[in-house]
Amino acid sequence: MTREEAIKILMGHSHTPQERAALEVLIPELRESEDERIRKELVAFFIEVRNREGNEGYWHDLKVANILAYLEKQPAQ
Prior knowledge:
The chain is mainly alpha-helical. It folds into 2 domains: 1-31, no CATH class; 34-73, no CATH class. Helices cover 64% and strands 5% of the residues. It has helices at 3-11, 17-26, 34-53, 64-73; strands at residues 58-59, 62-63. A two-stranded antiparallel sheet has the order 1-2. Helix 3 (34-53) packs antiparallel against helix 4. The relative contact order is 0.10.
């Protein structure tokens, strides 16, 4: 197994906040960028908006489904 494969496996598993912090100290590549954390929070927010408003929910004049599609296409940073 290569280092990259091992990191990919670790990134795919959920960890307690304490375990995640320890892994990020040992393996800095596991640390999420600020941009990625913001993107994930926006996705979660608009999923809540969609669930509250229904599938045809709108945020201002933008369809929530289109906002989510755009956010999901953004590359992980």
